[in-house]
Amino acid sequence: MAKQEFNPKRFLQLFGTIGLSSFFIFSTSTIASQLYSNTFAEKKLGMGASVASVSLENLTKEEAATLLQGKIEKWRSSSEVVLIHNEERKNLPLDAWQFQPEESIQAGRSQPLKTELNENLVKEALQTFSDPNLEKVLDMPLLLNHLKQSGSQLTEGTIEVQLGDFLSTAIEDDIVVSEIALPLKGEYRLLTDYVAGLNGFKINGGESFSLRQALEEVKMTPQISPDLNALAEGIHRAALTTNFSIVERHTSRELHVEDMLGYEVSMDDEERDLILHNPNTGTYELSLVVVDQVLSVSFVGVPFPYTYKTIVEKKTFEPKTIVQFSKELSSFNSISLKEEGREGYLAAVYRISYDNGGRKTDKVKLYEDFYPPKHRIEERGYPLAADPVEGIPPEAGDLPPALPWYPPYPYPENPENPETPADPETGDEQEPGSRKDGKLPDDSDEDPSKRREVTK
User: Fold this and answer.
1) What region holds the G5 domain (predicted)?
2) How far apart are CA 56 and CA 102, in angstroms?
3) How is 243-270 classified by DSSP, letter by letter?
4) In this predicted model, what pLDDT tens digit does every residue of 335-390 receive, in sequence order?
5) Nearest to 454 by CA among 393, 397, 388
6) Whole-number pLDDT of residue 378
7) Res. 444: pLDDT tops 60
8) Is the preceding peptide bond at 410 cis, omega within 30 degrees of 0?
9) Which of 10, 154, 247, 415 meets the CB 3.0–4.6 Å disulfide criterion with 275?
């Protein structure tokens, strides 16, 4: 069979026919699919579509709305919004947020979740705080806008809102929230300079105050002195009637003035310090002045939700008497006082909170101070034994405890000569009938006048 010769023209015609047919089939199916989708199927959201950081790409509007509604329900079940004012915390009902997921969806764009806030629920939550004037001092439009934005992000967990950050700039000047007057006894040469340097010192919200560091900030050097202790005590007493925390405080070993029990502060220039912590969002200012031997200390700032008072519960420990014997005193009844004793104390300091109606709301123990008693020390002469009566052995109560009764000879500690006792202190042999051998002396061996003299 003859081999057929290749025909290029025929090959090109066949290849072109097949290519055009394939293109026609592909184009027809693609166009038909798009035409059907555009005519009958719902459009889907394109790239970049999101609401409140929730991606909605390749979802229909109905699917996107369903997804957002699920995120909203999850946020309501797993989140809380807490309003904080000083020590008080109040939960804001999550029903205050009214979300609009359908209106928030737009193709190809990232949108926040459209939200409305129920102002009445917010105001009702503010009225649960103990401060009746809280709503008046707040910038309400700013607070409401912040709350609306916080909810629209659908951030799960606890959202804390510090109301102190939304205080109106139009509120009145800060007031004195705590004030004490401490009488001064004696001369205080450094105190005036300390007071002038720290007057007006600010303690910012959420920060701690160190007396040593504060003096260094105003270019002053704390020196061990009654002046430094008096300054620390005044600031400490004023802080007790606030909600400030006492972070560090020291006392001396002895209480020199009983009125200082529970309030004393002892400082030095290296280790001992007075440190307070301001738990509030607002800033408080120290006001100090010395007039007519009286140190006045006050805290100036936003009023507290409660009124604070302190009480000191005291327990007293009586001193004991320690007796020391001396050869220089003639008898046990002779007494020489070496050291006067003093009482010891245990002081528990409590802070009590009262609301605006004067009702007691809380009682918290802040700390305890202990000052051990100082025992009384006195010297007495050695007690003398009474003369025994012939033929009657001494009773246990006849001799003082300090003079033990030695048994009659033969003395067990002198085996070489049992008939002669030995001195229990020196080991020397003693004459029979002496006081130390334990044998009653004979009247003929002792001058009765001397015995009577001793008995007297």
Assistant:
1) 305-383
2) 12
3) S-EEEE----SS-S-GGGTTT-----SS
4) 777 888 888 899 999 999 987 778 888 899 999 999 999 888 888 777 765 555 55
5) 388
6) 84
7) no
8) yes
9) 247
Q: Is 382 exposed, middle or buried (0-12, 13-18, 19+ CB in 10 A)?
A: middle
Question: What are the two backbone dihedrals, phi and then psi, of residue 227, each rounded to the nearest 5 degrees?
Answer: -60, -45
The answer to whether 238 touches 298, Cβ cutoff 8 Å, is yes
- Report, in this order, helix, strand and coil percent for the chain, each rounded to 5: 30, 30, 45
Query: Which residue from 266, 263, 275 is spatially nearest to 348, judged by alpha carbons?
Result: 263
Least-confidence region, from 33-42, 73-82, 305-314, 434-443: 434-443
Half-sphere exposure of 326 (CA within 13 A, CB side): 15
Q: Which of 69, 70, 82 is nearest to 157 (CA)?
A: 82
As its CATH architecture, domain 307-382 has Single Sheet (2.20)
What Å distances lie between residue 318 and 79, 263, 289, 337, 418, CA to CA? 58, 22, 39, 18, 52
**3-class secondary-structure state, position 309:** strand
Distances (CA, A) of 132 to 124, 304, 306, 356: 12, 11, 11, 9
What pLDDT, on the 0 to 100 scale, is given for residue 56?
75
**What is residue 405's DSSP assignment?**
P
Q: Which of 57-71, 164-178, 432-446 has the lowest mean pLDDT?
A: 432-446
Question: What tokens does 422 get?
Answer: 């030995």
The residue type of 84 is: I
Spatial neighbors of 274 by CB under 8 A, at least 6 apart, are: 210, 211, 212, 232, 235, 236, 248, 249, 265, 267
Q: Are 277 and 247 in contact (CB under 8 A)?
A: yes
| pTM, two decimal places | 0.58
State the residue for tokens 């009214």. 98
Predicted confidence (pLDDT) per residue in 69-121, tens digit: 888 888 888 889 999 887 788 999 988 888 887 777 765 566 778 888 899 99
